[in-house]
Amino acid sequence: MKVTLFIPCFVDLMFPKVGISIVQILERLGHSIECPRQITCCGQPAYNSGYWDEARGVARKVLQSLEAAEVVVIASGSCGAMLKVFYPELFTGTAQADAALRLAGKVYEFSDFLVTKLGITELGARFEAKVTFHDGCHGLRELGTYDQPRKLLGKVRGLTLVEMQEKTCCGFGGTFAAKFPMISTAMGEVRCAVAKATGAEYIVSNDSSCLMHLQGLLDRQRSPLKTIHLAEVLAQS
Amino acid sequence: MSTASSEFKIQARRLTADLHHRQVIQTALGKYEVVRDKTKGAFQDWSAARQAAAEIKWEAINHLDKYLPQFVERLEARGTKVHWASTGTQAREIILAILEQKKAKCIVKSKAMTSEEIHLNEALARAGYEVVESDLGEFIVQLRQEAPYHIVFPAMHLARGEISEVFTRELGSAPTQNPEDLTLIARRVLRQKYLAADVGFTGANFAVAETGMISITENEGNARLTAALPKTMVTLLGLEKILPRLEDLALFLPMLSTMGTGQPLTCYNSLYSGPRQLGEPDGPEEYHVILLDNRRTELLADAEQRDALHCIRCGACLNVCPIFRNVGGHTYGTTYSGPIGSVLTPHLRGLQEWKHLSYASSLCGACTETCPVKINLHHHLLHNRRNAARQRPALGEKLAFRIFALVMNHPRVYGLAAKAGRWLQKLHPLVKGGRLDPARAWTQTRELPPVASQTFKEYWRARQPGQ
Amino acid sequence: MNERESILARIREALRVQAPRAGHADGQTGESPGLPDAAAMRRWLPAGGETLDEQLALFAKNATDLKAEFHLLQTPQELGSRVRALRDTEGWSKVATHRGDLTDLVCQELNLPVCHTDTSYDPAELESCSVGITQCDALVAQTGSVLLSSRSAGGRALSVLPPHHLVLARREQLLRDLPAALELLKRTYAPTYPSFISFITGPSRTGDIERILVLGAHGPKKLTIVCV
Q: What is the pTM of this model?
């Protein structure tokens, strides 16, 4: 099928390898990819800060660009939640209300697209390492993504998955990380400690914003623990 | 930035760096989580119970105009004097009037967060009354002249040594590290107060409309004694505590205990329907019930956030909140802390002054997931943010987001900004972490990833020659 | 307009706008389905036991977990010897109680000084008693609770002021769960309820000091239930 890829702004700028991995995986599966150049950001920073008019300014462009898409795949749980859960709320009572609902119906977070929509878990991937999985909160609680990444990781040759003892937020929270840096850092430190306790070499996640935050702390701590996006793991063979 | 907001940031900075405090709270809450999960697991269908609880509170709150008068009528029919207070000030005046009329000297109190909300103890002390908190946790923080740390566990932050110290200092008791001995000291002191008090003051967990009853949930027995011995009893409650029917307690008593403390039921769940009745040998001769509004009707009028009034004050959302766990209960500077406090306080005390609590969240949603009555907590934080920005936009921020929208809507501008960022980055090490660093909020504690040498868009464009 | 009227007016005005349906974040409005009945609640709450034997076993287990003592007597004749044994083990010197078929019997058997709380009494005298002996309205298997009231248990203070609370119950008083107990209250007392009703679930306790369990915070440190 024709898959429209929504690569969030920070993935585009700082983690392009995540997007490239997704393209490789989907093309290997025989799908054709479309990346509308007009799409840059889902508008979440403005939305989360309470500036919904400004958020709508960006979101309207996204709605337009994706109107014709058959199916939209997003590389991040937080942007996925923005399109699927928050756009309908953002556009309630406006002319775009229906368009928002239509878009919500065809948006998939990457792991959900593979497992739920395509019914695929085996990708021929190989990644020799002990890893743990961090569920981004938006993906986990707004989109209900939990089993899908684990099913995919379960089929990766050479990979051992160890679960963390608790499910807590990494502390990124978008603008929260800049507005309340001390709380954000404390939360991230707690999360890194829980991850380290698993003895894993890598923290894998389906949300690059979480990984950016955790890696930033791990680098400051000069920890050998590394972070990697789920798509990058699955693209390895 | 309001003073409350700056104070919050100062305290948050201090507490998040306090690793001992972090450890104390994680340990306490870790123990709670284990028992909570076990007790929840005993429910045959927790999910269905939770949905039903949400529906029962929806019914109560959305038909408050019917249930509140019914509740009052039933209470008044059995001899209770019911008072209505629009504001905290009015509630305090009503209480002071009762105390004066009864020529009271000593008041014994069982736990009532609503009384904290209206700053009752300070008002009573100023008026010269002796007020004694009888709940052990409240008794301890009262002696330390501190606010309660948590709505269910007021002394959660204290080690036994600190408790022993304040007992020795204020009560003259011998120092001890033994929790049983410490409890015995409090028990002995408070016993005398129950017997001597003129007025017993309580809060309420639920108000049953059908039968006109106040329901009080506790473990220690201090509320029962407060309601048994003094000649006059006063109960203060928020008007949102209503449950429609007596049988609703079969669901709410266990759910409150399960999420509040991890117990299937607390030791005492008592129902009070009036003063001493004919033929009863004890109990108060006079019973006063005070219904408190204090801006709850304003929240009621906000249909989008009305379900925040469904709250049964179990404290579960505090317990799972990563912000609460790292900054602690006192940092909020409010009666109600944690997620429910962050949702409510802007409504009860003022949006502009208290909006920062709604911003101090990563929106992880653990609170909404755990709430036994399914309040849409973390989404209400977003609603508060939107309402605050609409009412009084921060012009700098609004402008920044206008520019943000402009850049994001024009791919060429975005592309140029990316190139510029890549170039400016080379200069970043010169200012990193210092006062000139624009990314200082991040780089103070974290490394920042670089803009990639080839962004995804650049890669994609390179792939399609001729585009 | 007095405060009552202005508050009710504000409430009515506020409720003119509909709120989204319960437990739904999607903004759908409209009335919720009807409120659940006891049968529905019974399906979701922890199980209360189907047969009397199951319920007795469940009550006994719960009582033990709660650190309450539960004595299930095979014959009513055992009551005397059992309470005398308790008296001797605990070292009771004075008892407080109310008049009733079981309590009168037990008082005779104990042969100790008695403080009766059926009519007005001296709280200081009650405070000096070793044990408060009461009957009850019901035992609840699901939760291990004792249901009593100011009418069935000698007032409000008898069962909470002395350091030991002894409950005398009959097998027929065992109920399955909380819905059944609340139904019983309605059947027994409506519309003139006792002014005080309580579900007592174990001896008094607190976790306020470092989350460590301590028994006997303000209420009785010991709870003994004897069932004939």
A: 0.95
β-strands B268-272, C95-97 pairing? unpaired
**CB–CB of C132/C161 below 8 Å?**
yes
Domains and CATH numbers, chain C: 49-227 (3.40.50.10420)
Residue in the structure block whose two tokens are 């209470």: B75
CATH 3.10.300.10 fits A121-235, yes or no: no
Are the C-beta atoms of residues C176 and C117 closer than 8 Å to each other? no
Mark yes or no for CB contact A20/B414 under 8 Å. Answer: no
Give the count of alpha carbons within 13 A of C68, CB side only.
28
Give the minimum alpha-carbon distance from B19 to chain C in angstroms, rounded to a whole number: 17
Q: Which amino acid, one-letter code, is at B223?
A: A
Task: Say if CB A16 and CB B459 are below 8 A apart.
Answer: yes
The three-state (H, E, C) secondary structure of A91-155, written as one string: CCCCCCHHHHHHHHHCEEEHHHHHHHHCCCCCCCCEEEEEEEEECCHHHHHHCCCCHHHHHHHHC
pLDDT of A60 over the 60 cut: yes
To the nearest whole Å, the CA of C219 is away from the closest chain B CA by: 5
Burial, C50: exposed, middle or buried (Cβ in 10 Å; 0-12, 13-18, 19+)?
Answer: exposed
First CA to last CA distance, chain A: 24
Beta-carbon contacts of B29 under 8 Å, excluding residues fewer than 6 positions away, are B319, B325
Q: Three-state SS across A148-201?
A: HHHHHHHCCEEEEECCCCCCCCCCCCCCHHHHCHHHHHHHHHHHHHHHHCCCCC
Would the CB atoms of B450 and A14 count as touching at under 8 Å?
yes
Q: Which helix H or strand E contains B33, and what residues bound it?
A: helix B19-41
Nearest residue on chain C to B139, judged by CA atoms?
C208
What is the token pair recorded at C123? Answer: 């709280």
| Residue limits of CATH 3.40.50.10700 in chain A | 121-235
**pLDDT range class, residue B415, cuts 50, 70, 90:** confident
Helix B377-391 and helix B338-349: axis angle, to 10°? 30
d(CA A74, CA A95): 25
What is the per-residue pLDDT for C27?
Answer: 58
> Is B456 in contact with A12 (Cβ distance < 8 A)?
yes
- Residue A90 CA to residue A85 CA, distance in Å, equals 9
- Token pair for A194: 């829980």
What is chain C's Cα-based Rg? Answer: 22
Contact assessment for residue C160 and residue C219, using Cβ atoms and an 8 Å cutoff: yes
Q: Which residues of A touch B362 (CB under 8 A)?
A: 137, 169, 171-174, 176, 184, 187
**pLDDT, position B466:** 54
Q: Do A169 and B366 touch (CB under 8 A)?
A: yes
Out of B52, B62, B195, closest to residue C44 by CB: B52
Nearest Cα neighbor of B368 from A183, A209, A164, A142 is A142
Token reading at C25:
């974040």
Tell me the domains of chain B and their CATH numbers.
Answer: 43-294 (3.40.50.10420), 406-463 (no CATH)
Does the pLDDT at position B313 exceed 90?
A: yes
Does position C121 have pLDDT exceeding 90, yes or no?
yes
